[in-house]
Amino acid sequence: MSADPRPLIGEPLSLDLLNTRWIQDGALRDLLADTDGLAIWLASNDLDGTCSADATTLRHLLQARDALKVAVDGSPKEAAPLVDAVLAHGRIRATLTAEGPGELPEFNSPTWAPAWLAARNYLTLLTTAPDRIRACAHDDCVLHFFDTSRNGTRRWCSMAACGNRAKASRHYARTKTD
Question: SS3 of 66, please?
Answer without folding.
Answer: helix
